Amino acid sequence: MSAIYTKDPATGERVTLSELAKRHGIHVSTVSRRYHEGKRGQALVAHVDMKAHLAEQNAKSHEIAERRKAIILANINALSRPLKQLGGN
Q1: Whether the Cβ atoms of residue 16 and residue 4 lie closer than 8 Å to each other
Q2: What is the rounded distance in angstroms from the CA atom of residue 77 to the CA atom of residue 74?
Q3: Any idea where the domains of the chain sit in the sequence?
């Protein structure tokens, strides 16, 4: 397997992905994944704001939990009513 070369956005030099990762203090697998996702330039070596990322993930999990809770409550409420109230005989 041969090395993949790209431009370092800071210097404009042509370097391997592993060298780029070392220069910018990012794990090589992160740079490789981003490269294969089609990211180039500064997007390839940008650092992630972990506080914002964790807040976003937390909001998503709360949203999923609320959705599950609403589904469970809807099922319980429907099952706890007499059949006549639901339109049955």
Answers
A1: yes
A2: 5
A3: 5-45, 50-86
Helix H or strand E segment including 14: strand 14-16
CA distance 28 to 77: 52
| Helix, strand or coil, per DSSP, at residue 5 | strand
CA atoms within 13 A on the CB side of 25: 2
Half-sphere exposure of 50 (CA within 13 A, CB side): 0
Exposure of 45 by Cβ count < 10 A (0-12 exposed, 13-18 middle, 19+ buried)? buried
pLDDT digits (tens, 9 = 90+) for 57-89: 999 999 999 999 999 888 887 767 666 766 665
User: Whole-model pTM?
Assistant: 0.58
CA within 13 Å, CB half, 40: 7
